[in-house]
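// run 5 | inverse folding | seed 20
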């Protein structure tokens, strides 16, 4: 299986800049994103640990990569936060009358930024990235 595993984090030297690449986490908690330039030179950037998010492997309707911490505006107008978590839901069946409980762990969406309310799926990805929890916290308050 081949999938792209990469991270992003907010650059400590350039607070408005994001760095994308491989993640190195040191025992003291410091984080570094490693990128490569066009000549394959390795570049390392210290990033704020609380801003580090992993690439989900999915893209929004405009082809923009979706990362943990992104805010996605769905077609319904709701703004969801992308989180990694366990979504628990019930599935009711009329005949025979039973309720099955399912748990799914993986990329989820959340209305409050903490509690998964659904899996991150193609329907949500048909929306657009409106920002992220670090640069656009005001979008969380609109919910």
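// decoded
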């Amino acid at each position: 299986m081949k999938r792209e595993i990469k991270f992003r984090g907010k650059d400590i030297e350039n607070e408005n800049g994001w760095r994308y690449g491989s993640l190195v986490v040191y025992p003291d908690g410091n984080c570094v994103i490693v990128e490569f330039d066009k000549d394959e030179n390795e570049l390392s950037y210290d990033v704020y640990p609380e801003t580090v998010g992993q690439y989900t492997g999915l893209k929004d309707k405009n082809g923009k990569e979706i990362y943990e911490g992104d805010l996605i505006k769905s077609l319904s107008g709701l703004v969801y936060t992308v989180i990694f978590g366990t979504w628990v839901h019930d599935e009711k069946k009329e005949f025979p009358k039973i309720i099955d409980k399912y748990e799914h762990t993986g990329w989820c969406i959340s209305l409050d930024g903490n509690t998964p309310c659904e899996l991150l799926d193609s329907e949500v990805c048909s929306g657009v990235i409106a920002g992220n929890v670090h640069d656009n916290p005001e979008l969380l308050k609109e919910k």
